[in-house]
Amino acid sequence: MNLSNKKTVLLLLFILIGIKSVTAQQITGTVIDAETNEPIPYLNVYYEGKGIGSITDDEGHYSVPTHTGWTKLTFSSVGYVTKIITVIPGKSQKIDVKIKSESISMSEVVVKPKREKYSRKNNPAVELMKKVIAAKKESNLDANPYYQYNKYQKITLSLNDIKPESLNNGMFKKYPFLKDQVETCQETNKLILPISVDETVSQKIYRKSPKSEKTIIKGQNSTGVNELFNTGDILTTTLKDVFTDVNIYNNDIRLLQYPFTSPISSSGAISFYKYYIMDTLYVEKEKCFHLTFVPQNSQDFGFTGHLYILADSSYQIKRCILNLPKKSDVNFVDNLSVIQEFEQLPSGERILKTDDMITELTFGKMFQKFQVRRTTKYSDFAFDDLPKQLFRKKGSELKEADAMMRDDTFWEQYRQIPLTKSENSMGSFIDNLGKIKGFRYIIFGMKAFIENFVETGNPSKLDIGPVNTMVTSNFVDGLRLRASAQTTANLNKHFFLKGYTAYGFKDKKWKYSGTMEYSFNKKEYLPREFPKDLLSFTYQYDVMSPVDKFLQTDKDNIFVGFKTSTVDQMMYVRSAELKYEKETQYGLTLTASMKNANDEPTGNLTYTKMNGDLVHDITTSEISVGLRYAPGETFINTKQRRLPINLDAPIFSITHTMGFNRFFGGNYKYNLTEINLYKRIWLNSFGKIDTYIKGGAQWNKVPFPLLIMPAANNSYVIQYETFNLINNMEFLNDRYASLDIAWDMNGKVLNRIPLLKKLKWREYIGFKMLWGNLTDKNNPYLNPDDTELFQFPMRNGHYTSFVMDNKQPYMEFCAGVHNIFKILHVEYVRRLNYLNNYGVHKDGIRFMVRMTF
User: Fold this and answer.
1) Are 790 and 675 in a shared domain?
2) Which residue in 77, 67, 90 sits closest to 44, CA to CA?
């Protein structure tokens, strides 16, 4: 199945390791304003002195546990009179509460916490925010010639909201070490069970002219469930990307892999948020204005929260608290809170000293809740000149050689907050998990499901897989069985082997592929890890369809084996390829390859000359060179392939392939050039637009197997960068340009329709266009006596490949919905022209599994 890269893997991992807890007795109800009868959101509900409580949601609902002996429940919020009620201890009950409001004044402004028509005109809160936004540049450290600082970050993943009564039952009773791992979260007062912790100490250095900035990783330590997986960097890397650092001074705050509008954005905050002045107070002995803010529409991707602004002429932020609204169209997140603290250095600069985040996640009623706690502290700011040699090293992020091997002395020096007892005992916790009877079989199954490979040892030197390619079928093979394997860095850090053998029960032939790879830099597990510096040799014999090369997964993936149209024109291909790949830290990739291939048509494909003579096979010998530039692109590694961790980086690539006649048996001389461009455009609350532009030319006269064929997808599973309704080899060109543009509106329309908005579906529309041209020299119909050209493919007496009208581009449209049950993307695709071509479908339904926040 075409899962939506790393987010799907992370969410599946979360779900699979969850342990469902026992339900406690609860007190529930709704809190409303005594004057307006409107629900009161974000009101505190707690037992005084007990450390247990909750807050109301957007509709005023609350839920707190009830315990024997606890009889007094407190309801409080800024702007309301605190109310204490008596409850029946130890019994579930529903209690609705009315609370009186109190006016909160500041200067001549009076704000009452009730619903009223909001106006930005002549609003003192808006005028104050305009001054805060105008003063942003004063907090920009990049104005300094140099600066440096140290950063300590800890990310802890925990099972969340463990119920007290469950600690003496079930798993906790059977395995006491689980109970020992449980602790109370100081921020939420809930019981949590930490299962992984990742610590990083880094140094940021900056130079204004010539501009250069680098992050030096000085220490890194990761323990927990990620140790159980050889691709454990999936969890660590994805947590760091999804729950990344927050800079409130940026116009857009990237969080959960989505740009949220900052409450002090200079490009849209005033129109996106509603602001209210609440009070004046002192924060760490500095007088501040206290403002609250909420999105104009609570379902937009925005924040609610508090700003504490210095009550002086600087209008700088002293403290901010960012929360996600309960009604926000964000999946899986119950609560998210970001707390930032700023301070002024003796030199006068105001800097961020604390950036903490706590997120509570739920993936369904059947599964255990999770908590992600990110703690970030900044220290040791300095603005002295820095030596030039510090900036000469390549790459924006550098890791010191012994960063993964730091001792306790190092961590005592840089760890700004101590580890909790459970975080400190993570190693023994994982050891105890491994001693549970049958646990290794559970992990074995999870690894096979998540990683799509089966390990053969601990540590594994040989992995068997991909699992989803073992059984499939196609027109030539019929039923096809395949066995695949690859070696890992546990066998050798530089030298790797991978390959497969397959058998088709219809054509009764064996197929195979073998690859030897040498990495010039050491690898942790697989050779594709960033950055690549890799030399490989591949020898292969297999049956393929011409469009298999456009798939972003294995052609033997069982899910893409179900085709929407007949794919019976195939080839037996025997090839040998030598390839070198070199990646740089700056996003530039160089590839160079030499390839010799023999191509024999099979199925319902023939190579027929214009005079009717059949050609048994053709041979090509070629050299290819390519450049790819994707600044800022980052990856996670899976055992099957490397995946970009986000698609925000613009991508430009160019390749040129040169074929040689009479070189290693090559039959043709040709030159093929292709250029690709990709860019994602964020539209704030209106979602995002992904744009792919491609073009290419085959410069020489060649038979149709060497012409340019469209990137067609003939399966029901959506494949990015392909056409949904173009058949295999339907159009043959020697010049082409294509446009693929897709707008994910992120629920902007559907989430404003009553009733339908409760489904949290998100709309998706797209348009694809292909302009193609076949020059006269390559058109067999204009050259009936040419002995080099072949007749176009046919089926049942009808041509299945066509020459495009260079004045009429092919076009198709799609409209779909994703986030169905939070995992499914379904879209309707329609072909807009060239409807009379043989064997085409004018429309259809396509789908994919796609899990997003």
Assistant:
1) yes
2) 77
